[in-house]
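Reading a protein record of the kind used here takes little practice once its layout is understood. The fold follows as a row of integers, each naming the local backbone shape at the matching residue. With these conventions in mind, the following record can be read line by line:

_____
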Amino acid sequence: MPINPFHPFSSAHFIILAIGFTLIAGLIVFARRSGKNQQITTALLAFLCLASYPFALYAWRDHSYSMDNVLPFHLCDLAAIVAGFALFTRRPMLLTLTYFWGIAATMQALITPAISIGPPHLPFMHFFVQHFAIVAASIYIPLVLKWQPEMPWWKSPLKVMGISLVYQGMALLINEMLKTNFAFASSPPKNPSLIDHLGPWPVYLFSMQGIALVLYLLLALPFRRSIP
């Protein structure tokens, strides 16, 4: 079967974004109507997040079994696992990582998707199901589960920033050992992305972390007055 290519900012891209965000809004409205609805939605989102890795192995079986696709070490792979356990356990640090990583990082992946395989192929389906599930969980946590960052308001962003720096360091090490490109820490993605405008390697690594810190702080600002 010929592989249909996927192009960012194409009509297919905009259609999938519209469908995905509409479904997220519908899930949140549904969950807020009753406690039972909330239980159903929480279980569904947790399942989608935790099932994304085995789905990835199945989806890529006929396309590419490179280490980049086999090991779940891209940031969004980790974010999906973290989000799934956050929804089940309600552990504060997992909820915090889900909120900040989901909106600051995974949202960017939806806007500039690093995938070249289009519909109806399974890698395309996996990519968008996984990323929309993470974003849905990150929005769901404050709006439905009533999660809030720690006080003072900047504490949670700095914690997430520290974990993000450790992750980037580990990604660089693993990339050197396995010749992979986790976190795009060794080279930019092939598809157009924000990284293309942040300078050459390794300059863009510092630019990425600077932008991440600003986004984390901005994401905490709406809670500044509501935190007791």
